[in-house]
Amino acid sequence: MAALVVAGCAATPSGGPSLGLGGGSVANRWEQRVVTxxxxxxxxxxxxxxxxxxxxxxxxxxxxxxxEELAEQGVDRADLEAAFQAQDFxxxxxxxxxxxxxxxxxxxxxxxxxxxxxxxxxxGSDLGLTLKRG
Length: 134
Hints:
Layout: H1 2-6, H2 26-47, E1 52-54, H3 62-72, H4 77-86, H5 89-102, H6 110-123, H7 126-129, E2 131-133
Helix pairs in contact: 2-3, 2-4, 2-5, 2-6, 3-4
C-alpha cells in the first residue's frame, strides 16, 4: 500500500462525486476511476484561467484518490492494491489520450480541453462531477 501513498495525498475537504462505477471487476472499476480523475486533472491544469478546477477531495493523485474513494465504498484494499500493482500506466496514459480525443479534445489545442470540461460539468457526468466551476 505504500506505493499508493506515494501517488499523492492532499488535505482538502471531500466533495466526493457519485462514481457511477456499478459492476465489473475491481481492477476495471479502479482503472476507470483513475482514467476519469486523470482526465479531470488535465482539464483542470489547462483550464484554471477559465474557472474549471478539480472538485475537492481529501486525496491527491489519481491512483491514490481512486483507491481511497473505492475503499470508502467498501472495496477490499488487497484487491485495490492488486489492481494498482498490475496496472500498465503507459497503456493507461494512451487510454486517457484516446478517451479525451473521443470526447473532442484536439492535441495542441488547450481550449478544446476547456470546452469538453464545461460540457462534462453541465452534463453531470462522472468526469464533470470530478471537476468544478469556480
